[in-house]
Structure formats: C-alpha cells, structure tokens
Design a protein that fits this description.
The protein is of the alpha+beta class. Helix content is 23%, strand content 25%. The strands form eight sheets. A six-stranded antiparallel sheet has the order 13-14-15-20-17-18. α3 packs across α5 and α7 runs parallel beside α8. It is globular and about 80 Å long. The N and C termini lie far apart (56 Å).
Amino acid sequence: IDYMDEYRVFTWDKKRFPDPAAMLTKLREQGFRVITIVDPGVKYEPGYKIFDEGMARDVFCKTESCEVYVGQVWPGRTAFPDFAVEDVRKWWGELNAAHVRSGLAGIWNDMNEPATGEVPPDAMRFEHGRQTHRRFHNQYAMLMAMGTTEGLLSEMPDLRTFVLSRAGSAGIQRYAANWMGDNCARWNHLWMSIPMALGFGISGQPFVGADIGGFMENGSPELLVRWYQCGALTPFCRNHNSRDQIDKYPWVFGETVEELCRAALELRYRLMPYIYTSFFRSSETGEPVQSPLIFQYQNDRTLRDLDDQYLFGSDLLVAPIYVKGETARQVYLPQGTWYHWFTGEKFNGRKWVVAQAPMEHIPLYARGGAVIPMWPSAPDSTMDFQPETIELHVFIPDEDVEDLSFLHEDDGRTFAFRRCAFYRTEFLLRRAGAQLTLDAKVTGDGFPEFARRHLRLVFHGGIGKQVEVNGERVLLESGSTLLENAGEAFRVEATLGSAV
C-alpha cells in the first residue's frame, strides 16, 4: 500500500493521513513510535518540489553523457541522489530533518542497493558523472544512511537516532540497523536467516534481523510461531509482509497461535535489560549481539561448521526449530554448565543433547556462571519504562569459576550517558568448592529517570535456604530474595547445598 502521495518521497497520502502530526502525537501517547519508509528514488516529475529542488542543486546521479540517470522504481521514472557527494548527503539530511518534525521517531531506508528496475545500473555514474556505478554500488546505502543520520541529529541533537537499511557495506553499523531483505515464508528461509545474521555479526554489524514470517509467499501457522520464537531472540525483531500475501499477524491464525507468539515476545520484553546491556557492550567492544558459538568457544572444533544455533548476548544459547513438524532436535552445548531455560534442567557441556521442543518454546539455554538481568513482567510498551524492580537470575556453575556479567542502565533515549548519566553494575560471580560469592560494583552518576529501588536475586542451581547479603543472613523464598538496592554495590555469599 502506498502511504505516500503516489510514491513521492517525503510526502503523505493526505486522503489517508490528513493530519500526520496529530496522528503521531496520539500514537505516542498510546506508547507507539512510528518510522516511515524513505527510498532513494525521487519521482522524475517537474513540479514535484523535491525533484525540482534536486535539479536546481544538481544532486542526481548522471549518465556517461552527463544527463540525469533515470531508473524505474515505485514512482515510475525515477532519479537518484548522488550520495557520494557531501553536499548531496547534507541536502538529503535536511529533507529527513524536515520529515521527522511531524513526530516520526526514525527512518526506514528501502530499495537502496539502489534498485533501478529494468534500467541497466551500469549506466549510473557518481560524483557528477566522473565515477562509475561499480565504484560506489556497495557504498550507496551506507552513504545514504550517513546523510539520513546526520540530518536526524541536526533536528534532534539530544536524541539517539534510529535508521533501518535494507543494504549496506562495512561501516553501515555506525549509522543504521539492517534487515535481510525480501525473504519468503519458507522453512529453509527461517534456517537461512541464522547463518546470515551470524555473518553480519562477526563482520561488525550487530543490529540485524530477518522479516518474521517471511515477506513473500503464504506461510503456515506453525512456521509463524517458530519464526516468532526465533526472531524474538535476535537483535532486530519485526514482522513484515508483502501486500499481495495473506496477513501474517499472529491473531489472523487464531487464539492459539496468537498466544504462542505473544509468549515469545513477552520473553523478549522481559529480557530487555539483558538485551540492552548486550547492545551497549557491542557498541563499546564491537562484539556481536548474535554470534556463532565458535566466536566465544574458539578451541572447540565441533563448533566450526555449526550454523543452526547461536549465542544471543554472551549467555543465552538459542537453537531454533526450522523444520516442519519437528518437536525435538539435537543441540550442542559448549564447555561449562548449561540450564534449560524453561525446565531448569542442568547439563554439563561439550556434548550433544536431545532437546524437546513442544510448540510452546524452542530450545534455549542459560550459561552457568552468568547473571542475567530481566524485568519482572513484560510491559505493553518499552517507551519510558523504568520498573522499580529488576530481577537478577544467577545461574550457578558446577565448576570453580570467576565470571563477569553486566547490567547497563540509562535513560534509553539521549546521549546523556556520555556524561556518566548511567549506572553500570558489574557482577563478579565466584565459585570455589561449596562457596559461592557474588560481588556487585557500580559505576556512573545515575540519571533523573532512574526509578529502580530493588533488585530481586533469583538463584538457579543447588543452593541452601539462606545467603548472606553484606554480612547479614537472609532467608531465601523459592530460591530468591529482594535487595533494597538503588545503584549500590553489594556482596552475596552462600554455601551451596541441595536445591530449594
């Protein structure tokens, strides 16, 4: 469906959206942010403001004879901005800045390979006709994202940007997230999304995901559920669908499918503190958010060719179901202790296990030694959500270890974290025989939106009925205890015994 005015970029269909700003304000009040598509193709139409302005500024790609290159995309005859030129990126950024003044939260760049229809792309030239298409084909989307991001920052300098791109090259991670383009509602495309995402991750792009359910073709309810269960545990999570296919909203397939998909998304929302921390670590170190197991366990040769399971963050092992009718699969667990997320069953690693996979969930394991922060429940919206309590799930290892985990908290919207407006809690978990110690060290100056007053420690594994917190004995209830902690350091000590 064309929500623009006949596919003219930076416009709205005024019949459907007579007052975009009022609509966006109302949606924001309901907890929704809105992002719109902006393609690079500008309709070749004298009288259309963006085209006329582009012609006057000489911003469009040329042919070898220095005529404006004309391709065929959604608007029909289409001209393309020459993003290899800095002034063109600046102009494009200004257009994006004006576009988001209506209340948009970000921009979605599509068709930016660039797609040119039946017109040979070799005819497109850059830098006012001096450079060939081959020179800039792989960089075009990144340069477009660069201009888009710079424009958004000029309009909203205090807010972090969000730009989504279909294409990109090395460096795109500095400006945009990526999705994997037009996939199909097929089981092998669900599988294919796993090694594709892992390749992105180890190539430097941590913010990536596939269209849940498949963009093209008509899938089955079972495929949609399995794709939601996998996609909810990937960095970028989005359902997307072509307009000429059946709808792929979960509720279209009935209450059972809707509830199963909702459960997958609720798990993602509860894991937001862990996911957010993983993203922050990635922004500092470059490590992937979704990574092949061999990235963390490089001395295990079994993992060299394993492409159908992965680590989400550093502490969760995900083994998606990607075969029709499958309700169990083999999973390889690397060295260490691993806990089945849904059953609590504990395994020693460096071996294969058969994991049961009823339609309610896919195989998911937590690493022994990890401290995984979670929200106690899934909010309807993450917008400005700052709960009073965060759960810390402590997975006790069987072996003697010293293990680091993190929780990063800030306002989630601005660049104030660069001025130490955050809390970073570092958890050091030590096991020495039957003695378990958890030390928490906090850095950062905090931030005004900080609302957390409590931490709930939830222990998984063999632990007695009481622990010492900062030297005082505390009785555990169902393996957990509530700490009065608002950005403060603490120490927990325990003697390991039988499970509660």
